[in-house]
Amino acid sequence: MKPLLLAAALWAVPVCAQAPPAAAKPKPVARVQPPARIMDFKASSTNLQPGQSTTLVWSTENPTTTVISGLGEVTAIGNRSVTPKATTTYTLTVRGPNGEESRSLTINVAGTTAIAAVTATEAPKATPRTAEGKPDFTGIYNSSSFVFAGRQVRGQNSPFTGKLKPGAESFKVARGPNDAGQYSTCMPTGLPGAYFVPYQWQIVQGKDSVVIMYEYPHLFRVIPIAGPNNVAEHPVDPDPSWMGNSIGRWDGDTLVVDVVGFNDKTELPGGFRHTEALHVVERFTRTDFENLDYVATIEDPNVFAEPWKIERGFPLRADLQTLSEFVCENNRDYTPFFEKK
Amino acid sequence: MIRVMIPVAVIVASVGLLAQAPPAAAPAKPVRIQPPARINEFRAQPASVQAGQQVMLVWATENPSSTTISPQIGRVTPRGSQAVTPAATTTYVLTVTGPNNQTETREVTVNVAGTAPIARAAAAPVNPTETPRLNGKPDLSGVYNFGGGGAPAGGRGAAPAAGRGGPAAPGAPAGPELKPGKESFRVVRGPNDAGALSDCMPVAGPAAYTVPYQFQIIQNANFVLILHEYPGVFRIVPTNGGTHPVDPDPTWLGDSIGRWDGDTFVVDTVGFNTRTELSGYKHSEALHIVERFSRPTFDALQYEATLEDPEVFVRPWTITRSFPLRPDLKKIDEFVCENNKDYKELFVK
Question: Cα distance from A99 to chain B (closest Cα, Å)?
Fold first, then answer.
């Protein structure tokens, strides 16, 4: 079922992104922003024996943020299984242009006393940090390809500014009518293309290395981080690979990842091919608990007149704990779906 | 350098043969003199550089029980090379440890033009058997070799857990045993069936650790990741005390949650689809696997998996494995099947 979803989603996304702005705008009408509302907040069972689970179910309208006490930020509509140890009151809070609205739901656990209700946190939470004092990037982040919970993210619609050098015009991708595009075969996306598909990605930060996993098409990168007890160097002659060879270092609170050793099979955002000389430098900064700031500098002296940058903000998906499994069961079959009749 | 992807079934076939060779008949044991550890070579290429330039350290040792390079590099293989970019003139020290903690060291100094030598750090005490720890728990992080030669607990006769695996050897009571009426779950391959490992699909359960590729574990306070080089898959195991979803979507690798039982990391996995194989059997979505990982020494990971599927098998069974650490590798390689379907065609007779 998933691959079909992918096909539909990827087909739709570039079309949306490239749609020209609506022509001949009429005079702007003052818009009333609809208020955030809670439509429903219930549980599959509100009376439990100790150790039993219940599923909280909620739906809201027009929220900018949706928070459940004890669970943190959640999607606007969703459900979550919980196993409270004692009688617990969960409070759902939506925030919108009109302010806040809350609703509470108490789950009784037989033979226990109620846990004091936790008040929803107000201020944006600070960047989490490791025991060594470095920012901890561990978390799931949204792709920059679609808006999550109505939140505007940095650079959402910024143009891709790569300028080909004279004589390198053939590196601009031009597709024939039967070319389904780079995302039709489930091959690795390269960088920074991995952030431009409508799937989440996840960071798990270890002691000497950071792992970045991309739900589509199920990829991971292991990035050794240089430190007092850890060497992180590129090999002298890395094997060309789809995702390249990555090494990391800290620049203050920013994680800088240097990537070389790409093969020439992937495309860059904006519709460019590249050579094995591609060099990508990624800078990750977790500005607060909920936001990751990302800047990629792209350089390929065989293709581009000068290095160029892509800047994006990626919102944390506090409602998710692990990526879903994505498996392309037969890559070759996907392409014909896209061929124009 | 161009890397050639070797379809895993070819390698599994040869490894399987090795693993199943009977042990050589052992004559009476003579008293063996253990040879001392020696350093045959330790050099830097080039030995003098400008700031920012890269140097290759190259070494070869004999008979070491442990080999380390300081500063920064730590445990390494007996023979190897490592690129470094020292910020200033640095003296690297190679230390080998042999029987009875006998040690030998050799130094090489890399001169970086226009810099003062870095004060040499006191040689870090090397304890080759100490388990690293993180947040009070063993730190399982590292790259490990596959463990193709293990046997199920409770008897010889390891069911070949990969490739053209047949049923468990006769007389292996702890292996899988089908329930009456479930004979169709035994995998029977026709001559043109290249096997479960020929199409680059994810490999579930203990078989994932028996393909001839490395795997890597990364651990932090809330997650343990298990990354398999073949076929390039990851498992994310949360360790924050959560539960399985009430009705998980069936997946190739299932839904995993982890917890610590003393110094043993226990991973509970449910929610499998029915596409994978276990030691030559298919299974139902009721498959439940409990894996126990421990790292009693620096050098190796001990692994035990208990598998149960009450729809198909009479009783649970357990498989144990040991995976040696690869201290020379910081990460596993990228593995990409560029066209799954083509691999199968290679194997058709």
Answer: 32
